[in-house]
Amino acid sequence: MSSRLFAISFDAHQPERLARFWSGVLGSERIDEWDDGVALQSGNDAGYLLGFRPSRTRKTAQNRLHFDLTSSSLDDQQQTVARALGLGAQHADVGQEPDAAHVVLADPEGNEFCVLEPGNAFLAGCGFIGALACDGSRAVGHFWSRALGWPLVWDQDEETAVQSPDGGTKITWGGPPLMPDPGKDLHLDLAPNGDQQAEVERLLSLGAKRLDSAPGGNGAVLLADPDGNEFRVLTRR
C-alpha cells in the first residue's frame, strides 16, 4: 500500500486570484473539477496538480515550503522574474546575500518562491518547477520517501531529497534548525492507491500524527508529518 502525490496545495485567501497568478507564471492549464478550490496542471513528470484551497489562516512567518523555479539562461531567468512581477509578485527578503544569483519573490499572498540562475546541476532535467524546497529534518525526508515510495536522491549532512521514479520535481529538506510553523503555507495532498483507512494507518505507523477533520471535508483525513507539517489523505482517486 502507498499513496501518490495528488497535489501540492496552497492555503489561499483568494483561490481564483492566486490560481491565475501561478497559471500565468507557469503557463499551466486549469482543471475544471476540484473538490474544494481551484486546481492547475503542473505540467511536470512527477504527475501532481497545483491546488488552491480557501483558507482564512494568517501567514505569520516565512513558509516552510516553497518552489524553486529553474532557468535555461540568464535571459530566461530575467523573463520569468519580469513575468511574475507583472502578474503581481514582489521581491522578498529571506536573508539571501545582496549579490545572490537566484531571485527571491513572493506571490500576491506572500508565498515565497525562488527563480534560480541557470546551471543548477542538482535540478537538471527536473522541469520548470525544479524543486519543492522544504525546511525540515532528515527524519522527515525519510518519512516522505517511505510515504510516497519515492527514492532518496540525496541524503548527506542532514539534508535529504526525494524524487518520483518518473522524474520531475524533487522534494528537498534542508535540515535543522526547523523554522516556526508559518500558519498559511503549502501542503501535500495524497491519493491512496487502495483503501483510505488502511493507508492512514500505514502513515501513522511511519510516524505521522492524526489531526482534526481536513478542511473542506470531502472525506479527506488530516495528518501531520514528523515535523508537524499538515497534509491530507484524500479518498481514493
Describe what this molecule looks like in 3D.
With 237 residues, this protein is an alpha+beta fold. The protein has one domain: 2,3-Dihydroxybiphenyl 1,2-Dioxygenase, domain 1. Helices cover 20% and strands 32% of the residues. The chain is built from four helices and 16 strands. The protein has helices at 15-26, 74-87, 138-148, 196-206; strands spanning 3-12, 30-31, 38-41, 49-54, 65-69, 90-91, 103-106, 112-115, 129-134, 152-156, 159-163, 170-173, 186-192, 209-213, 221-224, 230-233. The strands form two sheets. It has an eight-stranded mixed sheet. Strands 6-7-8-5-9-12-11-10 form an eight-stranded mixed sheet, with helices on one face. β7 (103-106) and β8 (112-115) form a beta hairpin. α1 (15-26) runs antiparallel to α2 (74-87). The chain is globular and about 50 Å long. The relative contact order is 0.20.
In a few lines, what is going on in this structure?
With 237 residues, the chain is α+β, with helices and mostly antiparallel strands.
Core attributes:
2,3-Dihydroxybiphenyl 1,2-Dioxygenase, domain 1, alpha+beta, eight-stranded mixed beta sheet, 237 residues, 16 strands, single chain
